[in-house]
Amino acid sequence: MIKNAHLNTAILLFAQTAKADALHKPLAHNGELIDVLNKQVTRTAKASGYDFYHFTEVEQRGVGFGTRFTNSIQDVFDKGYDSIVCLGNDTPLLTIKLIQDAAEALNKGKAAKGKSLDGGLYLIALHKKNFDASAFQGLPWQSSHLAVAFNRYITAQNQELEVLEPLADLDTEQDLEDFLSGKDAHRSIIRLLLSTLSRKQTHYQYFHKKTISVISLLPLNKGSPKAA
Question: Which residue spans adopt a coiled-coil conformation according to this UniProt entry (predicted)?
Fold first, then answer.
């Protein structure tokens, strides 16, 4: 049911289940960690107040990331929505406000993006009327060139683009180490991650020892520098 009729915007979490995702990511040996990330982004997205859809490997159609993502967006549009905010599951510092800021940009007729520090995107917000499925599918997905290519895609649609603050995502063990050691990590999220990692102590003991003392020292996140 469409709750926000005045905006007619839905949120799409495009992420496989922890079991399936663990087969394809460098953090594959820790499906429990991916499950924590899925639950975290689901809580955040639902708390934003917009209709929420989670497309796992069950709902996704097609072969290849770009095809499956494009089809998932189209499937949500086909439910009657005019705009969409798309999320992944690997950005622990995603906030309700960032999602609402993206939805507000859509309400003003703009598109929006949240750039990952590695050059990818953690959030994409689009209008149905400007959605070019073929061009979108052909973007360099899962590469460091995605953010720049997405800019060109939006420009080709003659749309304004709202740029949200950049955030770190977790694709590799090094990403995880950097995140747990970083000054931007929320204490509560660190505790969730460490709780999960503690169940894998043999492999993750280094992370646990290195970061356990950080928890009491880190301030709450006050925001990363804005994207240029």
Answer: none
Distance in angstroms (rounded) separating the CA atoms of residues 80 and 74:
10
The DSSP annotation for 144-207 comes to TTHHHHHHHHHHHTT--EEEEEEE----SHHHHHHHHHSTT--HHHHHHHHHHHGGGHHHHHHH
For domain 9-167, the CATH superfamily is Spore Coat Polysaccharide Biosynthesis Protein SpsA; Chain A (3.90.550.10)
The CA-based dihedral angle spanning residues 162, 123, 134, 62, taken in that order and rounded to the nearest 10 degrees: -170
| Helix or strand run (H / E) with residue 75 | helix 65-77
Query: Any idea where the domains of the chain sit in the sequence?
Result: 9-167
Q: What is the rounded average pLDDT for all residues in the chain?
A: 80
pTM exceeds 0.70 for this model = yes
